[in-house]
Amino acid sequence: MTKTSAPASLIQTLGVEIAVPLGVYYGLHSLGASDFTALALSGVFPLARTLYQFAKNRTINGLALVVLVTNVVGMLLTFVSGDARMMIAKDSIGSGITGVVILISAFTAQPIMTKAMRPFLTHGKADHEAAWELLSGTREFDSIVRRASYVWGIGFVLESTARVIGAFTLPISTMVWLSTVLFVASFAVIMVVAGAGAKKAGAMIAEAAKAEVRPLVAA
């Protein structure tokens, strides 16, 4: 059985996280449910799925933990306030908090996005994984990888700001889908920009992997 590639897994996750909540919201709304009820129930699946992944894998990823805590706190605040706009805004605020955490981590020894980027740059290949370990800790490589955290952090903060403003100024029925569009569009732009910056790191990994293989071939 072949493992799902990192990009394919990411696309699948985004599809589930976005398509299912939207379908639930508009389905319930068409049946006469209030905005708050439809939004509350549409957020149950992503939250349950996240908790299931934690229970199944029994591993805690820094970024995933931030998202989980933000979702839980956001859901609690929303139910307490009973405000449908808060329900929309809590996801936006969550991505903003995530962006701030990513930015803070960029100034530490272990930026959060470094671990997230590794599967995309090594493609799960043993020689590329070994090359990553070899390059990790060098100034040039670490600097290139660290920049990705700046891009993701700043990107999430900016898209969060735009979505929060929309959540409290635009009609709820409009913002339900527009918030998703803004997130997906922002995510795509951030991924392209961060990916372009990470190309050099990928090239360094490929070159280091070849350098490790050459002596073995010569022998």
What would the average pLDDT be, to the nearest integer? 76
Extended strand count:
0
Amount of helix: over 70%
Biggest sheet, in brief?
none
Short description:
The longest helix has about 45 residues, at about 170-219. This protein is mainly alpha-helical and about 220 residues long. Helix content is about 85%, strand content about 0%.
Question: What do you see in this structure?
Answer:
There is one protein chain. The longest helix has 47 residues, at 172-218. 26% of the residues are buried. The protein is built from nine helices and no strands. The protein is 86% helix and 0% strand. It is elongated and about 65 Å long. Helix 6 packs across helix 8. It has helices at 6-30, 35-42, 44-57, 62-81, 84-105, 112-122, 126-135, 139-169, 172-218.
Descriptive tags:
single chain, mainly alpha, 9 helices, 86% helix, 0% strand
Question: In terms of topology, how is this protein built?
Answer:
Layout: H1 6-30, H2 35-42, H3 44-57, H4 62-81, H5 84-105, H6 112-122, H7 126-135, H8 139-169, H9 172-218
